[in-house]
Structure formats: structure tokens, C-alpha cells
Amino acid sequence: MGKIKLGLLLLLMTLVGTPMTGYGMQLSESELYARSACLMDADSGRVLYSKNSEQKLPMASTTKIMTCILALEDGRMDDLVTVSAYAASQPKVHMGAKTGEQFYLQDLLYALMLNSDNDAAVMIAEQVGGSVEGFAEKMNLKARELGCDDTYFITPNGLDGIHSTTAKDLARILRYCIMESPKKAEFLAITQMPAYTFWNYSKTQIYQCTNHNAFLGMMDGALTGKTGFTGNAGYCYVGALQWEGKTLIVSLLACGWPNNRGYKWEDTRKLMTYGLANYEYRDVFEQKDLGRIAVLNGRQQGTTIDEVATTSLEYGSDVEQMHLSLLLRKDEQITVHYQLPPQLEAPVRKGQQIGVAQYFLGKELLQEYPIYAGEQVDVRDYYWCLEQIGAAYCA
Q: Is 298 helix (H, G, I), strand (E, B) or coil?
């Protein structure tokens, strides 16, 4: 179909009968082929649309995004990697490398992500993790660090086994790869490369890679992605798009079986278009004077014995310069809860945390700001009271 301009795509979907409301395009679960799907805001990590996105399913070669980012972070790109017999025995899709051949680690990452070569994945794992099992431990540790508690890896290439993830976790992993990892630029450079050619170390064999992520040519702003397929997992996909300040991630699991290779592209376009049509950034920070709070048994300059001391409340920075920009639907409303005690007990230090301002979307806590005491308040002691009484008597 070629690359579709986003404005034209929205118009086409309207003309063919896709429901529209005051909030934009609607999308029902029945319109998606995937058994499990997730649309995520890459900036915040918030799930914008879900279809069984927490269901555990096999993920095929989308596994390789984790393999790639770990190799970039923990490996040295100029390392020489020797092909083991186990690596050479991996089934297609594969490079067909021979036992004992050597390659630079960097070249293998292109074979991994463009061609999705299974032998390249094993070579990388053995080099970076010492063994496939050792590398799988690294993969699972990184998954836990990212909060992907429903993800379990056993291989670096995602061939059928007892491994699994969820659409939500898979989107989180890609979010890390493109937004948070110290190697995010390198990850994007590899996954955006249309084609790549390299030699083995001995210059006896040349290898060619072609990027199979067709989504890169389907929509304006297509950023990155990885396909996957096994007989058990079906067609899978995870990809990202960046357009007009928004960065969206779509992940799909069990999105059809042969002969339905195109289902994943249809679902990806629908979800991306839904996100772009329905969500806009809004600054929801509440510009509010937090006022003052009473401090029992407190004293401060200018306070008399019959007055209650107080301290101002502040965020620790100029409130007029504070912002909270969130990607929201027009019908989504943020509520702010101020968690503050009714009063304080002296002493109170300037800069001491007193409470928090919490921003909720429904029951989901999106952001939290600490609230501090703006002034110091000391405890009233015996001598201060005597001074106050003496001053009042003399007056």
C-alpha cells in the first residue's frame, strides 16, 4: 500500500465507516485480529488502549529486542565472536554461519534485528552472557528491573519453548530500548537501517541483511520495531511511531497465523491511528497557593505567646515554572489530592517534607509532588516564654 499520510488515513477510516465520537475515533476489541494488544504512551509508560494486554503468551522473535539492548549495554561492539556448534545448528531464519567462523559483535546485531537470524542471537548470547543460559538470566533480570513481572525468557531468539510475555510487558521493554536505555540511539540506528552488508572476520564470506520491519514504510513517523513468528506464537509485532510530539508504542501477540501475515500491520495502523486521533498533550499542573499550616508549640520571630506559629507550604521551586504535561483523551479528567496533616508539632525545619500533591486519573496515580515547609519553626522553651511574659508586663 505504501506509506500512508496520517491525515489521509484518518479521513479514509471515517469514510469507510469507522465510528467517530466527540472524543475522536473509537476502536472496539473485535476490530483487532490480535488476541492480545497494547497501545502505550512512550513518554509516560501509560497504557492508552488494551485488549487482553496482561495475558501471558509466547512472543517469538520480538524477544530479540531484549537481546539487542543487552548486547549494546553489556557487550563491546569490536569483540570477535566465534561461532559455536550450537549456534551453527539453529534453524531458519539463520545466517548459515559455520562452526569456527568469526564475526564482530556489532555486525551480528544487524543480522539479529534486520534479518532476525536465530544463529546470530545465539552467538550474541554466548559472547555477552557466557552461555545461552547465562544470557537468559541477564534477560530475566533486566525484565524484573523494568517491572515486567509477567515476562520469562529462556532463549535469546524466542524459538518456541516455555517462555512468555504480555503485550503490556513487551511494550514496556521497547519503551526502555528507545526512551530510557543509555544505548537508545544505537538501538534506533540499528533497527532503522534499511539494509546492511558485512564480511566475516577472515573476509571469506559476505553476509547481507534486509530490514523486514515493513511498518517503517507504512506510516509517517514510523520509528522502530520487530516482527516475530513461530507456529506456537503466531505472528507478533512490537513497534513505535513518533508524530507531532507524541511517541506511541504498539505491541501485538498471537496476531494471526498463515496465511494472515498482514494482520499485524492492519492492527498496528489501527492502534497508532486511534492513539493519534484521540490523545493530545494537556498541562494539568494545578497552579495553586498551598497556603500556611499551624505549628503547635512553635515560636518564630514576631510571634507572641498568645499566637499560633505557622509555616508556609511550597514545592521547593517556583510554582509558576512547574508543569505536568500528560497525553490524555478529551474526556479524561485529572483529580488532585493534597495529602497534608491538619497541623504540625514544633520543631519544623525549613525544607522538611510535610505532605504530597497526588495527580490521579481515576484510581491510577500518575504523578506525585512532595510538599515542604517554607520556614523554620522552633520549639517554645521556658526562657522564651519568660521573655514573652516579661515583655508583655513591661508594656
A: strand
Phi, psi for residue 255 in degrees, rounded to 5: -100, 65
Over residues 7-25, mean pLDDT: 47
Alpha carbons 145 and 139: distance in angstroms, whole number: 10
What's the number of CA atoms in the CB half-sphere (13 Å) around residue 153?
29
Identify whether 83 is preceded by a cis peptide bond (ω within 30 of 0). Answer: no
- Catalytic: which of 64, 168, 183, 270? 64
Predicted confidence at residue 22, as pLDDT, reads 39
- pLDDT of 252-272, one tens digit each? 999 999 999 999 999 999 999
75 φ, ψ (degrees, to nearest 5): -100, 170
**Cα–Cα distance, 95 to 208 (Å, whole number):** 9
What's the CA dihedral at 190, 194, 195, 201 to 10 degrees? -10
Q: What angle do helix axes 64-74 and 167-175 make, rounded to 10 degrees?
A: 30
Cα gap 24→343, rounded to integer Å: 46
Is 64 annotated as catalytic? yes
Is the separation of the CB atoms in 156 and 136 below 8 Å? yes
Share of the chain above pLDDT 90, in %: 83
Owner of C-alpha cell 498533550: 281
> Can you tell me which residue has the cell 559472547?
127
Q: What is the chain's Cα-based Rg?
A: 28
Q: What is the DSSP letter of 98?
A: P
* Res 124 pLDDT > 50: yes
User: If you search the block for the grid coordinates 491511528, which residue do you land on?
Assistant: 273
Q: Supply 376's cell numbers.
A: 523554620
Which entry of 36, 53, 116, 251 is annotated as an active-site residue?
116
> Average pLDDT of 123-147?
98
Q: Which three cell numbers stand for residue 284?
A: 494539568
Measured between alpha carbons, how far is 164 from 35 in angstroms, rounded to an integer? 14
- 3-class DSSP string for 8-61: HHHHHHHHCCCCEECCEECCCHHHCCCCEEEEEECCCCCEEEEECCCCCECCHH
Q: Exactly one of 36, 61, 164, 251 is catalytic; name it.
A: 61
Sheet harboring 344-345: ordered strands across? 334-339, 353-361, 364-373, 309-314, 292-296, 344-345
Could you report how far apart the first and last alpha carbons of the chain are, in Å?
Answer: 91
Separation of alpha carbons 134 and 126, rounded Å: 8
Active site residue 61: yes
Distance CA 47, CA 175 (A): 12
